[in-house]
Design a protein that fits this description.
About 80% of the residues lie in helices and about 0% in strands. By secondary structure, it is an all-alpha fold. It has two domains: about 180 residues, Growth Hormone, Chain: A (Up-down Bundle), CATH 1.20.1250.20; about 190 residues, MFS general substrate transporter like domains (Growth Hormone, Chain: A). A two-stranded antiparallel ribbon has the order 1-2. β1 and β2 form a beta hairpin. α7 packs antiparallel against α13 and α16 runs antiparallel to α17. The longest helix is centred in the C-terminal third of the chain and has 37 residues.
C-alpha cells in the first residue's frame, strides 16, 4: 500500500494536496472578512479605515518577513511542525479578536499575531515540489484555487444573511481552525521521513526536467547561471505582488473614478473570479507540458495587455482587464517558484525570500495607489507603473528563454567537436 500511486504520483501526495486545499479553503474566510466588513468593523470599533488599513498592512508585512524564516524552519524541523505552528498562530490571532472587541486588541490579534501565519506560506510550495514530479504545476494550481473557491463560497453566505457580522466570521474562522485545520495537518501531512521516498514508486521526470537537471551541474559555470534566474524570478514575483496590491485595494475605485456603471463593475468582478480559477487550471496543465520560461513570458505579456486596457478606460476596459488579469492571477507565483526549483534545486530559504519579494510588492502597490490618488486625483500613474514593470519582467523571461535555447543548440556542436 505504501507504494501505491495515483496518476504516476504517490498516494500520499494527493492526500496531502487535498488536506492543504481544505486548509486554504477555510483560510479564505479571513481574507473575505477584511474585504467585505471594513465599514462595519470601523463603525463597531469606532476606528478609521486608515487604522484598518494599517492593521492589514502590518499583517502583510509580518507575513512577508516570516516567509524566509518559515523556509529556514522547514529545512531544519520539517513541514509538519511548521504548519502546525502556523495554524496555531492563526487560531490564537482570531481568538484574540473574538474575545476582545477593542481597537488595540483587533490590531494585535489580526495585524500582529495572525501575520505570523506567514511562516507556513513557504511550506505549502515546498511540499508540492517534494511530493509531485509529473503533475507538479497542476497540483500547485489546484492548491492556489482553494482561496478563490473559499472566497466564492463565503461571499454569498454572508452577503445573503444580513444578521451575520464580522464577529461571527472571526468566530467561524476560530472554530474551523481548531476543528478542521489542526486535525487535518496532524493526520494528512507526512514528514519526509514518513514518506520513505527511497521505496516509493516514481518514474523518471519529464524530459524538460531531465534537461534542466543535466544543465545544472556542480561546475562554477552552471552555478553562475543561477543568479540571473533568481533575479528575474524575484523581480517577477515583486511585480506580481505589485499587480495584486493594485487590484485588490484599488480596482473598484479605479472603475468608479472612470464612471463605470455598477452593472459593468459587477460583470467584470464576476469575470475576474471565474477566470482566476479557470486560468490556474489552464496554466497548471500547460506548465507541466511546455517550457515554463516561455509560458511565463506569455503570462506577463497578457498582463501588459490587461493593464493597458485599464489605463485607456475604453468602453469594455473593465471586462477586458478582468479577463486578462484573471487568467494570469494565480499562476505567476507557482510558475516562478517552479522555475527556481527546477533550475537551481531551490530549498525552503530560497522560496521564502522569493515570497518576501512578492509580499513587498503587494504592500508597495497598495501604498502607491493611495499616494497616487492623493497627489494626482487619479490612478493613472499606478496603472502606468504596472504596465512598465510587467514589460520589464516579460523581457527578462524572454532573455532567459533565448539564452537557454542558444545553450541547447550549442550542445550538439560541442559534442561533435
Amino acid at each position: 500500500m505504501e507504494n501505491q500511486t495515483w496518476f504516476k504520483e504517490p498516494k500520499h501526495a494527493w492526500i496531502g494536496l487535498g488536506t492543504l486545499w481544505v486548509i486554504g479553503f477555510v483560510g479564505a474566510l479571513t481574507r473575505f472578512i477584511m474585504a467585505y466588513f471594513q465599514v462595519q468593523i470601523a463603525e463597531d470599533l469606532q476606528i478609521s479605515r486608515g487604522f484598518i488599513s494599517m492593521a492589514w498592512s502590518t499583517n502583510l508585512l509580518i507575513a512577508a518577513c516570516c516567509a524566509p524564516l518559515g523556509g529556514w524552519l522547514v529545512d531544519r524541523y520539517g513541514p509538519k511542525k511548521v504548519m502546525l505552528t502556523s495554524a496555531l498562530m492563526g487560531i490564537i490571532g482570531t481568538g484574540i479578536v473574538v474575545l476582545g472587541h477593542q481597537p488595540i486588541v483587533f490590531f494585535i490579534g489580526y495585524g500582529v499575531i495572525s501575520g505570523l501565519i506567514g511562516i507556513g506560506t513557504t511550506t505549502t510550495y515546498m511540499l508540492m515540489f517534494d511530493w509531485f514530479q509529473h503533475h507538479r504545476a497542476k497540483a500547485t494550481a489546484l492548491l492556489a484555487s482553494a482561496s478563490s473557491v473559499g472566497l466564492a463560497v463565503s461571499t454569498p453566505i454572508f452577503v445573503s444573511s444580513s444578521w451575520l457580522t464580522w464577529k461571527d466570521a472571526f468566530l467561524a474562522s476560530f472554530i474551523l481552525g481548531i476543528v478542521i485545520a489542526l486535525p487535518m495537518i496532524w493526520l494528512g501531512i507526512k514528514s519526509p521521513q514518513q514518506q520513505n521516498k527511497a521505496e516509493s514508486v516514481q518514474e523518471l521526470p519529464p524530459m524538460e526536467e531531465q534537461e534542466m537537471s543535466q544543465s545544472v551541474g556542480s561546475s562554477l559555470k552552471a552555478r553562475a547561471l543561477h543568479l540571473p534566474i533568481f533575479f528575474v524570478v524575484a523581480c517577477a514575483l515583486f511585480t506580481c505582488g505589485f499587480n495584486m496590491g493594485t487590484v485588490e485595494m484599488n480596482l473598484v475605485a479605479i472603475h468608479q473614478l472612470a464612471n463605470v456603471t455598477p452593472g459593468m463593475i459587477a460583470l467584470s468582478m464576476s469575470v475576474l473570479g471565474i477566470l482566476e480559477i479557470t486560468g490556474s487550471l489552464v496554466f497548471g496543465y500547460l506548465l507541466d507540458r511546455f517550457n515554463k520560461l516561455m509560458l511565463m513570458t506569455i503570462l506577463y505579456g497578457i498582463r501588459i495587455m490587461g493593464f493597458t486596457f485599464l489605463f485607456l478606460h475604453v468602453g469594455w476596459s473593465p471586462v477586458l482587464f478582468a479577463a486578462a488579469f484573471g487568467i494570469t492571477y494565480l499562476s505567476a507565483i507557482p510558475g516562478g517558484l517552479l522555475i527556481v526549483n527546477e533550475y537551481t534545486k531551490g530549498k525552503g530559504k530560497q522560496t521564502g525570500f522569493l515570497l518576501l519579494f512578492h509580499q513587498g510588492g503587494s504592500i508597495l502597490g497598495a501604498l502607491i495607489g493611495g499616494a497616487s490618488f492623493d497627489y494626482f486625483q487619479n490612478y493613472q500613474l499606478l496603472i502606468g507603473v504596472d504596465v512598465f514593470i510587467c514589460t520589464l519582467v516579460t523581457l527578462g523571461y524572454f532573455l532567459l528563454l533565448s539564452a537557454r535555447r542558444r545553450k541547447i543548440q550549442l550542445q550538439p556542436m560541442k559534442a561533435s567537436t
